[in-house]
Amino acid sequence: MDTDALTAGLLRELRATRPYPALSLTMPTHRTAPDNVQDAVRLRNLVAEAVKRLDADPRVSREAAAAIKAELDRAADEVDPRRALDSLVVLATADEHQLWQLPRTAPERVVLSDTYLTRNLVAAKAQTRPFWVLTLAADHATLWNGRGEGIEVRETGGFPLTAPKEPPNPQREMRSGDAPSKFTDEDTRNFFRAVDEKLRAVLAADPRPLYVMGTAPALSLLDDVGDSAKAAVGRVAKGAPADLPPAEVLKELRPALEEGARQATADVERRLDNARSGHAFAGGLDEVWAAVREGRVGLVAVEEHFQTTVRVTEGHLEPVPEGTVQSADQQIREDVVDELIEAALDGGAEVVFVADDCLAEHGRIAAALRF
Which of 55, 191, 201, 323 has its CA 20 to 30 A from that of 359? Predict the structure, then answer.
């Protein structure tokens, strides 16, 4: 599966508590040869490590260990190197397994817990920054699904739309002295009203940043007949023929997409700055952890590759030596960042991932508090 499949409903399902152990395996992968040759070897080694962990864990019965090993073997056989991206996530219990190929790197690790490790899935979804693109002309409108470096036509919500073909009207042309402008014609205005209505419904069902592309008269008319596109992050005033290929759409959009990414980063920085000024800021893992547990967090910003193992002592988090694994008493947490993100999301907070070192002075994780 890829990040397009990661809906809010599926995330809730993945975060659900399961009988121990729910096994999560993550590793970096390579998209092309010859580098991807090593991926199969690394996966076999990680599966072997997982089996050793299962066999050594007194909480795991022999039957459960054997069942999970069988699921891991099936998952390894299903990996298609031709579809490899930047990381692989394998989730397995005694009854199921899932494969996720993600367009962002992930560290190499095996985690046994009572929930799946979802942080890398959430991070990949955030990193791809899904967005909508509407390409528009007088007689057609196409909706595109964008994520990361890719874009594709999305047939949803009534899109793509094509205006009805109207026969020439010589009497109207005689009255006006010329053929009327397409963008002042009432039939075109009605078509654009239909585009506006359907676009509004799509954005309500799946809110994302919106980019619009079309000639200046087309963009102006869309704003004139409705308001669905007025909050677009970026606009590209260029003709958009119905058969415009994805690569050309992406090329024309590139400056607007880059500016949109800069605006998003600046917005996170602004919100954290405001939180500091208003004494509503938490920085560092222990502070953010405490604020999340108290339900006070509105925004969590975390560096993409931040991971750590800690010991929970009297409600606080203490670092432990590298290589320490989860203990039977549950005081050692192998990926407390994932646990924190799950709790923040469940509490209604927004979680965003930022580039490494952006939050170095705050312990690689920070939060803006509601109160």
Answer: 323
Model pTM above 0.90:
no
Say whether the peptide bond before residue 321 is cis (omega within 30 degrees of 0): no
Mean pLDDT, residues 313-318:
86
Q: What confidence score (pLDDT) does residue 170 get?
A: 55
The answer to whether 92 and 110 have CB atoms below 8 angstroms apart is: no
Let me know if 59 is exposed, middle or buried by CB neighbors in 10 A (0-12, 13-18, 19+).
exposed
Cα–Cα distance for residue pair 101/187, rounded to 1 Å? 46
Q: What is the pLDDT of residue 181?
A: 62
Q: Residue 57: helix, strand or coil by DSSP?
A: coil
Look up residue 116 and give its two tokens: 């799946």
CB hemisphere CA count around 197 (13 angstroms): 8
Backbone angles phi, psi at 277, to 5 degrees: -65, -35
pLDDT of 176 > 80? The answer is no
- Could you report the per-residue pLDDT of 246-257, keeping only the tens digit for each? 999 999 999 999
Query: CA-to-CA distance for 115 and 335, rounded, in angstroms?
Result: 11
φ and ψ of 125, to 5 deg: -60, -45
Cα separation values, 34 from 37, 38, 39, 105, Å: 6, 8, 10, 18
- Give yes or no for a contact between 225 and 141, defined as CB atoms under 8 angstroms apart: no
Average pLDDT in the 210-224 region? 95
